[in-house]
Amino acid sequence: MTGPDALFAPGFRETPYWWEAAPPAPAAAPLPDIAEVLIVGGGIAGLSAALELGRQGVKALVIDRETIGWGASSRNGGALSGAGSLGKVRADLAEAFGKQLVAEMVEEGEAAYEEFAALIARENLVCDFVRSGRFVGAHAPKAMEGLKRRAEMLNAATGAEEAFVVPRAAVAEEIATQKYHGGMVMLRAGGLHPAKYVRSLAEAAARYGATLVSGVALQSYARQPDGSFVAATDKGRIAAKHLVLATNGYTGAATPWFRRRLIPVASYMIATEELGEDRVRRALPKLRVYGDTKKILYYFRPSPDHRRILFGGRASFVQTDPRRAAATLHRFLVDLIPDLAGVRITHGWKGNVAFAFDMMPHVGIQDGVHYALACNGSGVVGMTHFGRVVARQILGGSNRVSAFARLNFPTRPLYTGHPWFMPLVGTAYQLRDRLDGWRVTKGGV
């Protein structure tokens, strides 16, 4: 076959590669009308909160309008890092939030990674977890200065060399490309199989007494005089002492205050056909997880069995179908790693991530509602951590308030949750990357 369709392998699917091994399954438990804690959102944050509550003897009810784990929790790239998962470690953070608070956020992020690894071991979560490290490529020479500062910030927080800069001459030791002008490696980072992880997390939450019910949509809620809540769903009413919102990129009209503070953005991924481990290692010699510094960033990695490459990015700043986005991502991949020219793709999919206007994750309490929202594209470790933070808020007695709970949760005038401005942002980002010298070769295979 020739032409645009040549890049698609026979049987190409517009569903996540991850679902081949761990498809989201319906949770068909009866919907109770009373709950100690009602958690809206059956992704990583909601399940993590339910698990932590259950360990302390509090049984939560988790509802989701889709199947449990259906959203970005089982669609993401499965890349993990410490502070890199809890907001963008940027040079301007100290100016924006103050040096002390930023230091606390970085320290909390690094500790969250180790707590995450301990959770996997303690609960025996089957999810292909590996400590591989993460390489971040510098898309332009000036980006190296930012990476140097990020490495210094991370190392200062841990008191050890957890991150180091890679000069341009050594980039080939990390990735088979001429596109990056150097990079940074974070050692406290790794990868897992996200669909297996969210499935195992759900099973663990259920073991501790959580009730999981899929196919239930929140329609509205009201706070009662005693501080409890009554939630109206399309399957009936639920009275709950506590209410938790963990809907992230799928936050709907039932929670307008939160929706006004979240920017849902579609992120797209592809999976190549099986290449064999030798060819994958030629492209990605150290089998890490990968990202870069562009405004329109790439994120990619080997599959857990090291036989494929999974590649993601913002293929479009308007909603488009996964097949069209897959063709764009394939072009990006081959432009970055020319050795992959001619490789076909078997899967292309998308999922919504949620950004905050300050590009930081947010956890806290608003008018009695506990929330963990805004993964900003890096949610596996972060949302697991913030789910625990929410649980500890409800349980009380936490020795330390999360540094992220002290952040204001900003919005913008007239914004209602519909990101009409994203095409404009995308155009500006493309221009910025081009001004920095980044070019993508047109055409495909």
TrEMBL record:
Oxidoreductase among keywords: yes
MF-aspect GO terms: oxidoreductase activity
E.C. numbers: 1.-.-.-
TM spans (from-to): none
Keywords carried by this UniProt record: Oxidoreductase
The FAD dependent oxidoreductase domain, residue ranges: 37-392
Keyword Protease: no
Descriptive protein name: NAD(P)/FAD-dependent oxidoreductase
Species of provenance: Falsiroseomonas tokyonensis
Organism lineage: Bacteria, Pseudomonadati, Pseudomonadota, Alphaproteobacteria, Acetobacterales
